[in-house]
Every structure is written in C-alpha cells, then in structure tokens.
Amino acid sequence: MNTRAILLASVFHALGFATLVGQAPACTFRGAVEALAERPSPLDSISIPLGGDVAKLCYGRPSARGRTMLGGEAPFGSAWRLGANEPTTLHLPFPATFGDVDLEPGSYSLYAIPEDGPWTIVVNSNTNRWGIPINPEVRGSDIGSFRVTPAPIDHHVETLTFRFEGDGRAGTLVFAWEHTTVRIPIARR
C-alpha cells in the first residue's frame, strides 16, 4: 500500500468512516477526500462513551504557528468556531446535558465567545455552515449557551486538541490550545 493510501485510510478511520452499528457517527467534511491530507488544519474526532453508547465530537485542528490565537486571531468578545474549517460538531445518539444545555439525540455545532475571563460556549442547530463569521443568521439557530472558566496551563499546546475524561454516564470534554484549557461537562440524561 502506498503512503497516500495509508494516509487516506488513517483519515477515514479517524473520522469514523469505518463505524459499525451502535458506534459513534461519522464526521462529515467538505471537498474531495484527497484534499483532506493537504489541509493545514487537519480534521480529527474524539469518541465520548457514555452509558453504553458513543457520542462523537468532530473538529478541525488549527496550529498557532507563531501567532497569538486566543485573544488575537480569535479576538476576545467575538464568536469563534472552536476549531477550523467545518463547524465543531457534537453527534449525540442519546439525550444529554452539555454544560447546562439539555439536548435531544442529534447533531449540533458548537462555538465559543472567548473572553479574558469566563467564556461562553454556544450550542447551535446548524451543522452545515462553514467556519466564520458567526453572523446573526447563524446565531438565529442557537439552542442554548453556558459559561465556563478557562484555566492557564504551563506548557504551550501548538495544535488545538480536545480529549474526553470520564466514564459511566458523565464526563468532561477538555479543550487545550496555546496556554489555555477549558473543561466542558457532558452527561447522559
């Protein structure tokens, strides 16, 4: 198998194209499959196992590349997509509470309004939009929002990363980028 085929197989696996019945849904993307490997902000996903089922978070992973992102390229007080390219999307096969927003099974886009203090995390029903700006038309599809307090981290995280911590029926999505981490609670209802 050539290097390109191995890379594409890895991308398909990471995005969930090989999912089985009962597992997390596949991530969606725009454009040709071959173009995914060329993106400067690769797509990624994490599985969120809760109560015997698996939810999935799909997101683009931008890198800082010497820029100040949080409070710079993603200015404080402005809506930001929590990733790159396609919207950061939460796929839920079960009812859940995300932050303090109750959600039914379905797919939701997420964005944030970072501040030099608590951030606002927004859940939106429009998963077909592209990136930014997050304008009044997009905001008209908001379902709910909640506040989280970012925490500083002592090391630099070059490429935006999410991970899931938890088991059973509840856990936390952990966002890390540059010198900032944000913890978002998620629980199966």
Determine the N-to-C terminus distance. Answer: 44 Å
The secondary structure category is: mainly beta
Largest sheet: 6 strands, antiparallel
What's the rounded overall pLDDT mean?
Answer: 85
Strand order of the largest sheet: 1-2-3-6-7-8
Helix content: 10-25%
As for the number of domains, it is 1
Attribute tags:
47% strand; disordered N terminus; 4-stranded antiparallel sheet; mainly beta; single chain; 189 residues; 6-stranded antiparallel sheet
Give an overview in words.
By secondary structure, the chain is mainly β. The chain has one domain (3-188). Helix content is 11%, strand content 47%. The chain is built from three helices and ten strands, in the order H-H-E-E-E-E-E-E-E-H-E-E-E. It has helices spanning 3-15, 33-36, 136-139; strands at residues 43-50, 53-60, 88-92, 96-98, 101-103, 106-115, 117-124, 142-148, 151-167, 170-188. The strands form two sheets. The chain has a six-stranded antiparallel sheet, covered by helices on one side. A four-stranded antiparallel sheet has the order 5-4-10-9, with no helix packed on it. The radius of gyration is 16 Å and the shape is globular. The chain starts with a helix and ends with a strand.
